[in-house]
Amino acid sequence: MTRRILVALACAAALAATGCGGGGSDPPAPPTCPTGALASGAADATFAVAGWPDRDYDLVLPASHVCGQPIAVIVALHGGGSNKEGMRKLSCLDGDLASAECLHRVANAAGMAVVFANGTDAVGGTLVDPNGVRTWNAGGGSNGYICVSGAACTAGIDDVGYIRALLADVATRTAIDPKRIFFTGMSNGAAMSQRLACQAADLVAAIAPVAGENQFALAGCTPSRPVAVLDIHGTSDACWPYPGGNGGCLQGGLYVSVDSTLAGWAARNGCDLTPTATMLAPIPGVNDGTSVVRFDYTGCMAGGALAHLEVVGNGHYWPRGYAYASGGVVGGVMSRQLATDQAIVDFFAAHGR
User: Fold this and answer.
1) Whole-angstrom Cα distance, residue 42 to residue 70?
2) What is the pTM of this model?
3) Structural domains of the chain, with CATH
4) pLDDT tens-digit series, residues 295-308
């Protein structure tokens, strides 16, 4: 499956890079639009993944999209108990899908495509949410630490295989730039992005997990090449505690800490172990009692940049997103001091392969 995807992506990239005339002064030919691919321009469509029933995805393309021309792709992974529709809303300021502060809108403005993927639905999940109550098998389940999370873990779902199949399908819809495939996600989805960086580094250029750490690394994490990481986590998170230990809003148990996750990536990526801290300037007019400290690691090997955004006072939320639950349940408040979508898109734009 890995070879199949890489060949599909390489072919898609080649379509845009070839086609010049015989003379050196001839203008390059326009990209060839493959049969079955989406036409140039904006698109927002849902597609099935062969071999994975009930695991469809949404593909959102920007107006700048040119059929046959390689494009950066961000795959967004929802939190445990949510779904692709929930993930799209979660990243929007106050849950307003018309807001300019939605992940897909910020990414599209930067010329990037966004994929909203679906995890495994729990038995009876559609009775709670018509789109399902879904989870990812992000790993764990050893030394007292839980497997994150739910039905996907219980059933041992091969979600790395699902992601490979999904990307193979996306590559038939648009020309993916194989050097600019990125993953982000919330909570269980964030932990899944960490697992992908460990097990599918041949595909992944960078990840930006929000409120979910590298639970999979308990079983070992040996990426085939460096992956850039922007880790985002709130200090008042009650579901996935910043210092690790007992937590869980959907599933109680032991969770790994932010510090252990960052130390692991620093070691793998050859970074200096002590980062430089910078307090970010507050967003004008925002007075919610929260703040943001950025930690940048130096000395990292090529392709292995590492940074952390510590959102002081933020609970189990996507900062400047949708406050889907009360702080009494998920801890803290939803910070408005970090433009999360922009921070993620900027990091990805700077860290293609």
Assistant:
1) 15
2) 0.92
3) 2-21+45-350 (3.40.50.1820)
4) 999 999 999 999 99
